[in-house]
Automatic annotation (TrEMBL):
It catalyses: N-(5-phospho-beta-D-ribosyl)anthranilate = 1-(2-carboxyphenylamino)-1-deoxy-D-ribulose 5-phosphate. Its EC number is 5.3.1.24. It comes from Heliorestis convoluta. GO terms for molecular function: phosphoribosylanthranilate isomerase activity. Pathway: Amino-acid biosynthesis; L-tryptophan biosynthesis; L-tryptophan from chorismate: step 3/5. This is N-(5'-phosphoribosyl)anthranilate isomerase. Residues 4-214 form the N-(5'phosphoribosyl) anthranilate isomerase (PRAI) domain.
Amino acid sequence: MARVKICGIGTYEDAMVAIESGAHAIAFNFVRASKRYINPEKARDIILQLPPFVSIVGVFADEPRYSVEEIASLCRLQVLQFHGQESPEYCRRWSYHTIKAFRLADAKNDIAKQEQSNALFSSWTALLEESQQYDVDAFLVDAYSPGALGGTGKAFDWSKIDGPLSKPFVLAGGLNPDNVAEAVRIVKPYGVDVASGVEVGGRKDPAKAKAFINAVHKGISLYGVSI
Ligand SMILES: O=C(O)c1ccccc1NCC(=O)[C@H](O)[C@H](O)COP(=O)(O)O
């Protein structure tokens, strides 16, 4: 089955909802502009109470390298997700697994002029070409929503995905218990990522998280192969 990452853990209870639902990875958001931002000390307190066998991911956007190193070490992160305009050079030589996030807009005209970025595309071909510059462990493709880097609950047009990336591909953006089985069937990603789609009132919801993971099981697929 596709791997599942639940993003935007804000409390110990959120983390346990994700883990007990069967998530393979949980993510703490260190992007200050995000409503899901968590202070690194608070994240560390939660992480130190967690059971083993769950990947701990930190989400960053254009954070100075020294600061990422500090937070990763403090919080014992295992995976770094770069959600801003980080260059290929920046993304190299980390002693952690790395994921580079890109956003895909449905149409060129959707992209506001002031939001042009090396991580924002309206065509799969352009995204694919840019991804070839990056020596990371996986790519995450999210939806574009004006004025936000992620976590908006908006999906993109999955039919724009056209051909494999060179590294495992994590599908994100507007996934929820009602659409994720179809998304997995159509896209056949290595993994899926969700924030808004398993929340109620800003907290991770046990029923939604379980329904989400059950639906991923129904969609199956890992690396494009049904198992
Ligand atoms: O979740 C956020 O608030 C966020 C803010 C800024 C950068 C990244 C952010 N989230 C990263 C993720 O991996 C989210 O899970 C992804 O954007 C999907 O979110 P959603 O559409 O809400 O499921």
